[in-house]
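Appendix C reproduces, verbatim, an entry submitted by the partner laboratory led by Prof. M.T., so that reviewers can inspect both the input and the predicted structure.
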Amino acid sequence: MQAGFIGLGDMGGRMAARILSAGLPLTVYDPNPDASRTLAEGGAVIAESAIDVAERSDVISVCVATGDQVLAVCNQLLPALAPGKTVLIHSSVSPAVVRSVATQVEESGAELLDAPVSGSRPAADAGTLTLMIGGKAEVLANARPVIDTFAGHVFHMGPVGAGQVMKLVNNVMLHMDHLIALEALRFADSMGLEEATVLDVVNQSTGRSWVTENLSVVDDILRDHPQADSDGIFRMMSKDMWEAVVSSRETLTPMPLTAAGVQLSAGLCRARLDHLVERATDG
């Protein structure tokens, strides 16, 4: 099976490295040539374009940042798609975007799975990411040799779009937990409590969450993400909450707390980043 990967950013690069380390032939493309260098040294073929990846690959993974980028990449792939090829959309985008793309892909005779991922950088490096799949069960079965190189947990949620709905559900909970933790820690600090002690207590109590147990991981994203030196990091932290609010309109399901989280996210994350910088400066 020939694997292809488009989008070698913070998560995509790690996932592609797992495919390569499993011994599968891999063709990759990213507009930033530097993103491909390490993979090239490991034996990956560096494509000149997205369509070049599609021409060389049976399973094509797409891991880009936004819905608009997913649409643009898939439009580039279409001329090279044919029966027997499968496109995996790992980006976190709206269900409507993947349904639209799936219609075009299937008209070419190829197949599409929406396959967003959940997990940290260490999970990506270890190949233990969680995948939430939307699409045909038989297409998923055929793509497992690629998927299993970077995923430790694979859940088939239903038809195309269902994977993205599940990812939005997860990320609403994740990001709201993060905002609540940041606000609570600011309160604790204002009252003279040490953050490390507060987290020790919370993580042995009913207030614990993945965020409180892994706050240093989330802090690292704020500090070290490729967009960390711009407001892009704050937009990224709230993007999925906003996608959930927009998608919820399809079923007339109000999400007032999530909508409030979108509004509050940038301020709380910026304050946390300032706090981390101040703490590092104070030593």
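The mean pLDDT is 93. Additional entries are available on request from the coordinating office.
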